[in-house]
Amino acid sequence: CRSVMKRLVSWTETLAAMFLLAIALLIAANVFLRDVLSYQIPDWFDGSKLLQGVALMWGFAVATYYGSHICVDIVWERLGSGGRRALDVASTVITMIFPAATAWMVWIKVLSTGTQTTSDLQLPIVYFYALAAFGVVAAAVLAALRVARLVSNTPIETPDQEVCTCIVTGK
Fold first, then answer.
1. How far is the C-alpha of 157 from the C-alpha of 160, rounded, in Å?
2. pLDDT tier, 82 (very low <50, low <70, confident <90, very high otherwise)
3. What number of other Cβ atoms are within 10 A of residue 122's Cβ?
4. Is the pLDDT of residue 155 over 60?
5. What are phi and psi of 156, to 5 degrees?
6. Cβ count near 55 (within 10 Å)
7. In sequence order, what are the residues at sequence separation of 6 or more whose Cβ sits closer than 8 angstroms to the Cβ of residue 46?
8. What span, in angstroms and rounded, lies between the C-alpha atoms of 158 and 27?
9. 58 alpha carbon, distance to own chain's centre
10. Given CB 3.0 to 4.6 Å as the disulfide criterion, which of 60, 78, 99, 151 pairs with 140?
11. CA separation (Å) from 5 to 40, 106, 142?
12. Virtual CA dihedral for 92, 88, 73, 67, nearest 10 degrees?
């Protein structure tokens, strides 16, 4: 079970990075071609903004699992270890609710996209929306895994393989 979770997190990180790389390569290639050859990649703008939405959703999934999003620790720092753990669990449950609701709404958008396409190449945008929707679903699933690990007091490994206990023991 633990190796399945590690693989899921690893795949999510890899996909988020690949989508971000695709955006950077698309924009850089378009700038190069436009400036050097006076040629523009068709649908570069539509492609880059759609890929940005996809990368954002997959990146949000990774940040949600690791708890590396923006946190306000004013209350948390004043609590004891039990209070901190309870606040961590409560805040992660609340965080889990939002991507779950967002996933539902994005899938409604995917199903209602119809035959909308990009302007130059007429690429169906439903595929980009579906990739983003899978990213939001991954965020909800990884948030649920984070809740389970917090409740069971299982350490959460950070991207650099250090262990974050998420519970301060005063050491």
1. 8
2. confident
3. 11
4. yes
5. -105, 120
6. 23
7. 118, 119, 120, 123, 125
8. 31
9. 3
10. 99
11. 42, 24, 9
12. -50
For residue 113, give both structure tokens.
């996209």
Q: Helix, strand or coil for residue 79?
A: coil
Taking the C-alpha atoms of residue 82 and residue 71, their distance in angstroms, rounded to an integer, is 19
pTM of the prediction?
Answer: 0.79
Residue pair 145/65 in contact by the 8 Å Cβ criterion: yes
H or E element at residue 106: helix 81-112
Query: 66, 156 in Cβ contact below 8 A?
Result: yes
DSSP string of 121-170?
S--BTHHHHHHHHHHHHHHHHHHHHHHHHHHTT--EE-TTS-EE-SS---
157: β partners: 163
The DSSP secondary structure of 12-55, one letter per residue, reads HHHHHHHHHHHHHHHHHHHHHIIIIIS---TTHHHHHHHHHHHH
The DSSP call for residue 1 is: -
Residue 166 scores a pLDDT above 60: no
DSSP lists the bridge partners of residue 117 as: 124
User: 117 in helix, strand or coil?
Assistant: strand
Q: Return the pLDDT at 65.
A: 82
The residue to which tokens 């004013």 are assigned: 74
Each residue of 31-46: pLDDT tens digit?
999 999 999 999 888 9
* Eight-state DSSP code of residue 114: T
